[in-house]
Amino acid sequence: MSAAPVSGRLSTLAAALVIARRDFTAILFSRSFFFFLLGPLFPLIVGGLAGGIGASVKETTARPELGIAMSKADVAAMSAAYRQLQGQLAYLPDLVVVAELEPGQAFDAGAAVRDRKQNLAAVITGTPAQPVLTGTRDLIERWQGPVSLAAAQALGNAPASYPKVELSNLVTKTTADENRSRVTTAQLGQTVLFLLTMLLAGMVLSNLVEEKGNKIIEILAAAIPMDAVFLGKLFAMLAVSWVGITVWGVTGTAVWLAAGNSLADYPAPAVGWPMFFGLAVLYFSMGYLLLGSLFLAIGSMASTVREVQTLSMPVTMLQLLNFFFASYAMARPGSAIEIAATVVPFSSPFAMLARAAQDPRLWTHGLALAWQVVCVAICVKAGATLFRKWVMKSGPARGGRKRRWFGRRAKAETAV
Amino acid sequence: MVSNAGAGANRPLAIEARGIVKRFDGFTAVDGVDLTVPEGAIYGILGPNGAGKTTTLRMLLGIIDPDEGVRRILGHDRPHEVAHTIGYLPEERGLYPSMKAYEAIAFMGALRGLPLAEGRRRGRELLEQHGLGYAADRQIRQLSKGMAQQVQLLGTLVHNPRLVVFDEPFSGLDALNQGKLERMMRGLAESGVTVIFSTHVIAHAERLCDEVAIIAGGKVPFAGPVDVARDRIRPQVRLETRASDGPWRAALPADARHEGAYWMFSLPETGVEPLLRALIEGEAGILSLSIERAGLHDAFVAIAGEAAARALEESPEEVR
């Protein structure tokens, strides 16, 4: 070959870029990525369908009715009064005529309420002057007032007209409301961050196992530092995650806006929406890189997918604990426990996102992000060192000491 | 260890390792290996499976670090600093199945610092040169095993390395492709590239190598020129006489043994002249007399021992 040799060695970052570019394009242009993008759609569809069916069932079966059993004249008077009141008291249940009683006719209100053929929550009996309400305690206590009003109206004792009340919503929220809403925003942000991190960081697990299966890892390890391999893989998967989140985010936002929602209807986080979203992206990235580097180290030590699953389970549980820790700390801003949650690397992204919703100070985020970058670097370095120490070894299989963990079996299988 | 300065004594060293040791879980896989590989040489690491060949190569390339000892590769202590001038073909071949052949070559070049566009161009060129141009756009998974091995070999060379390291390069190749690979290795050495390869097949080392390191049980009992290894055993003399007995027999060396019609013995320090004189004077009737230089196999047996030689012969290999 006449071409000139390569003039200089690759820096770690340049080498990481070679790996990242290969992994990113390979994943992005694979058929499985399309299905990966569709992934969240299926639970949404199933959830939507289940919710719709549930709402419909609730609508038809759980809407309580108020029955009435009086003389024909009393039923007419009470029904007219009730209709008039329904205009003022929107929460009143529908009134259903159960029976128009002849004078002296007995009626068992309890049996009517228990009758499974009807959907009665309570029954009014007696007369407008002396109404009797039969039903469960909580309902009859709640409906006692409206029934009394209707009876008074039926007797002609109620006001002839009701003045129109002008509504003023100049005060949209109180300080208490705002604090409560920010906590809700923080909780929501933490939950979304946790779900995305867990969903996407798991992808790196199988990546390295596949690489080892293809026997490519030795070529990579000979050409570039393992740190670069790890970094490249992490950033490739992060970029893939960003693509996924962008697609899901744009689609979700379009649907959300089409449904008539607006961000202005929701209380803004302490740092404002644009900064909150910016920080959410950064904290997702850091959370992803932290967890991803840990998963990558595990993936590098495992020989099979089964080993990956076994080894990753404790990490998944630990991350769940971190999430709960950050959630618990969120309700105690400024406390020692909240500060601890922002310092512990794996709970820090969650705790800091919650802080962004509740605390307007920005410098704390700069500090936290810098700390998280250091932790990612340590995790990547440790993972690469473990990999070099435990995985890239060979030698004769020695009888009687077949260890299966941390790549030791791989050694026996790749005897020189 | 016996080290012999040979043909490459005055050449700068491509690889220099002193006392490198690697232990795994208390087991010493490589135990104080010394190696010096002159630039431009074809150097073989010869030993049975499990002898420590791959671990030694991995340490030399910086894939793993030695627990003890020092290594210098192309003048650098850190192999990754000169990774752009090294090509490596591991024993366990591996390529991304979904990559196209020319892309796989370009990717391997990119790992060594070759710009991707240049790697793609060279990839297509190399495939054409080796009769695989028609497969350039095929995915690796669509290629036969032999073709995929060739693609990986080309990827090892795409960046024009100064040093090429092959780990068991002949394993899995048919006789035809083994021959092609031997020619390619000679061509590389002729163009000044240092070639180092591990093998458990003596014939390859004997045909190709200027120098060899014999490795057994993680130790290197010999490293140096192949001729020097052979010279560790005295040439063997084979004598056939018409007369089976006579006073001339007293002139035979002490190690002479009768095998069939022949007398076999090591060439005496004094040469064969005194024996010839005795044979002629004793009218033994010389039918044939040959002096054979020891082969590398005999040298291996003498240096590494019978057990290592047996392990070498038992190492699985389809084509020897």
Automatic annotation (TrEMBL), chain A:
<feature type="transmembrane region" description="Helical">
    <location>
        <begin position="32"/>
        <end position="53"/>
    </location>
</feature>
<feature type="transmembrane region" description="Helical">
    <location>
        <begin position="271"/>
        <end position="298"/>
    </location>
</feature>
<keyword id="KW-0812">Transmembrane</keyword>
<feature type="transmembrane region" description="Helical">
    <location>
        <begin position="239"/>
        <end position="259"/>
    </location>
</feature>
<keyword id="KW-0472">Membrane</keyword>
<protein>
    <recommendedName>
        <fullName>ABC-2 type transporter transmembrane domain-containing protein</fullName>
    </recommendedName>
</protein>
<feature type="transmembrane region" description="Helical">
    <location>
        <begin position="188"/>
        <end position="209"/>
    </location>
</feature>
<dbReference type="GO" id="GO:0140359">
    <property type="term" value="F:ABC-type transporter activity"/>
</dbReference>
<dbReference type="Pfam" id="PF12698">
    <property type="entry name" value="ABC2_membrane_3"/>
</dbReference>
<dbReference type="InterPro" id="IPR013525">
    <property type="entry name" value="ABC2_TM"/>
</dbReference>
<dbReference type="GO" id="GO:0016020">
    <property type="term" value="C:membrane"/>
</dbReference>
<feature type="transmembrane region" description="Helical">
    <location>
        <begin position="366"/>
        <end position="387"/>
    </location>
</feature>
<feature type="domain" description="ABC-2 type transporter transmembrane">
    <location>
        <begin position="33"/>
        <end position="378"/>
    </location>
</feature>
<keyword id="KW-1133">Transmembrane helix</keyword>
Automatic annotation (TrEMBL), chain B:
<dbReference type="GO" id="GO:0005524">
    <property type="term" value="F:ATP binding"/>
</dbReference>
<dbReference type="InterPro" id="IPR003439">
    <property type="entry name" value="ABC_transporter-like_ATP-bd"/>
</dbReference>
<comment type="similarity">
    <text>Belongs to the ABC transporter superfamily.</text>
</comment>
<feature type="domain" description="ABC transporter">
    <location>
        <begin position="15"/>
        <end position="242"/>
    </location>
</feature>
<dbReference type="InterPro" id="IPR027417">
    <property type="entry name" value="P-loop_NTPase"/>
</dbReference>
<dbReference type="Pfam" id="PF00005">
    <property type="entry name" value="ABC_tran"/>
</dbReference>
<dbReference type="GO" id="GO:0016887">
    <property type="term" value="F:ATP hydrolysis activity"/>
</dbReference>
<keyword id="KW-0547">Nucleotide-binding</keyword>
<protein>
    <submittedName>
        <fullName>ABC transporter ATP-binding protein</fullName>
    </submittedName>
</protein>
<dbReference type="InterPro" id="IPR003593">
    <property type="entry name" value="AAA+_ATPase"/>
</dbReference>
<keyword id="KW-0813">Transport</keyword>
<keyword id="KW-0067">ATP-binding</keyword>
